[in-house]
Write a structure and sequence with these properties.
312 residues, alpha/beta, four-stranded antiparallel sheet, 7 strands, 41% helix, 11% strand
Length: 312
């Protein structure tokens, strides 16, 4: 429950809110795609985030804060969102000024997943405490740790090389896709975020359940790929993305096959959505339920019907 309170993945967290401790607060995440303001430089954005953290220290009382925890590359909640240069150092500087511990959650992105043994090594800002888990047991055992032994055997350097290839191939196939808003990540830890309108970065309606549909399609015979579907990168509820986290031992032919299968899944799902008239059914349902859906979701459902040329 403590770690659930520290995180902010709202879909997973919402059912347990009454049970969560209240001595945790949150600040703005470093999410360039969603958080960087128009005409704002990266340096100004980092400074704004540092000030946001400082303001939170002052709001709750610096003497009450024991630690600040951050994912160097945010996994499920934001979809492989890497930090801007200088962000981690700026956050650590604020913590050091108040004597608070600076902690990394590298449960998903650590131990080579991002191309370096620890994700923070690419930024050069070490923590006071680091926690690791999923990449430690590779899914075979429920294990986590705060201290680890050196373990590489050439795997991490392969992650970096194959990660560069995966990056290149994903951008080659999806950069111009009309409903791909962002492709982001590092090493073998990548995400594709889907949007109804690229210019506005507007999400698809949650009722479409787009990312989940893609994950399910990937598990069908003939598609054969596991996509880690998630949502909520816009406001905690809206937003569809999936993560790609290949094993450290992949080679060039494996990466090429992975991208080929991802393309097949994405094309198939969008074809189904158009062919089956799911958009019209979904929007009719929204109107039927009246105020049961948020204004933004209702609005983009209508906009999407217009985009596909369907009836509304």
């Amino acid at each position: 429950m403590g770690m659930l309170a520290v995180g902010d993945f709202k879909v997973r967290k919402a059912p347990y809110i009454p049970l969560l401790p209240e001595n945790v607060s949150h600040v703005l995440a470093c999410h360039t795609y969603r958080g960087l303001q128009k005409n704002e430089s990266h340096e100004a954005y980092v400074a704004r985030l540092a000030q946001n953290l400082e303001d939170e220290f002052q709001r709750v009382g610096p003497e009450t804060v024991c630690a600040f925890m951050v994912e160097p590359i945010v996994g499920t909640a934001l979809g492989c969102a890497p930090p801007l240069p200088g962000y981690l150092e700026a956050m650590k500087t604020v913590c050091d000024s108040h004597g608070a511990l600076f902690m990394y959650d590298e449960i998903m992105c650590g131990l080579g997943r991002s191309g370096t043994r620890h994700a923070w090594q690419a930024e050069g800002t070490p923590p006071d405490i680091e926690i690791v888990g999923k990449t430690l047991g590779s899914g075979y055992a429920p294990i986590s740790a705060v201290l680890i032994n050196e373990k590489e055997d050439g795997l991490v350097s392969n992650v970096a090389r194959m990660g560069d290839l995966l990056n290149s191939l994903l951008r080659e196939r999806f950069a111009a896709h009309p409903y791909v808003g962002d492709i982001r990540g590092r090493g073998l830890f990548w995400c594709i975020e889907f949007v109804a309108d690229r210019a506005a970065k507007a999400p698809f309606p949650a009722a479409l359940n787009l990312a989940k549909r893609m994950a399910n399609r990937g598990l069908e015979r003939g598609y054969d790929i596991s996509l880690f579907a998630a949502n909520g990168s816009v406001d905690g509820w809206l937003g569809d993305h999936f993560l790609l986290c290949p094993p450290y031992i992949v080679g060039e032919s494996d990466v090429e096959e992975i991208v080929k299968r991802v393309v097949k899944v994405v094309e198939s799902v969008f074809e189904d959505v158009k062919r089956e008239g799911l958009v019209k059914e979904m929007v009719d349902g929204l109107f039927e339920r009246g105020k049961g859906r948020g204004v933004a979701e209702w609005y983009w459902a209508e906009r999407w019907v217009d985009k596909w040329g369907g009836a509304g």
